[in-house]
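Researcher: Excuse me, tokens okay?
***
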Amino acid sequence: MWIDTHCHLDASEFAGEHGDVAREAARRGVRKVVIPAVARFNFDSVRRLAAEHDNCVYALGIHPIFVPQAAEDDLDVLREAVRGALSDPNFVAVGEIGLDFFIPALCTPEMRARQERFYSEQLKIARDFGLPVLLHVRRSQDIILKYLRRIEPATGIAHAFNGSFQQAEEFIRRGFKLGFGGAMSFPRALQIRRLAGSVSEEALVLETDAPDIPPAWIHPGRNSPGELPRIGEVLAQLRGMSPGEIAELTSRNAHAVLTRLAG
């Protein structure tokens, strides 16, 4: 069985089809789909989807892309939402949080500082409640790691990882898993494919980031969690393993980092 550790099932691209998409993923063997929130406005929607579909769970957080629109009290709202979600067996992590230094509008000195403040405060929420984090690390690995050394949440996943081998080793040393998805299906994605094929096996988890990052066989179409088994086959080829071995390995790793999945 497979676990999709990162899927935005509540995205508008799935409007009216959430149930069909979740059921199709289950039919293809995807036992769990982790749905991270991105802002205060969708805390309720990810919670509701997880309640409605047996193979879905959720995380709560404020995505760096939504930091410019976030209100000052959103961090307080998040802390209380996390506190209230601890009794919900479908709640598994704080996320999606992190830093994005790729989009120009997010790279001004003022916006970088605001991103870093929201990121660090959300790490503190995860630390205070003993929860893992789902990290957005686009062109920001070193600064992400700087705050992890300072604040030290329980553990987490570096989503859509595309850093260096040295950065990968630093995440792994801190107990983090690395999320790999459709990007590694492209033959020209040499760095991601090398990483996926060579990092420690205990660091590997799979994700789709659906509806984004579609794999090569549906690019540029809409991605979905049902594509995860085929994405897993790509990882199996890169590692010289069978798909069944990869399914077992990555599911075991997902449970190790997202300990509430067992509930």
Q: What stands out?
A: The chain has a mean pLDDT of 97. The longest helix spans residues 109-129. The domain at 2-262 is CATH 3.20.20.140 (TIM Barrel).
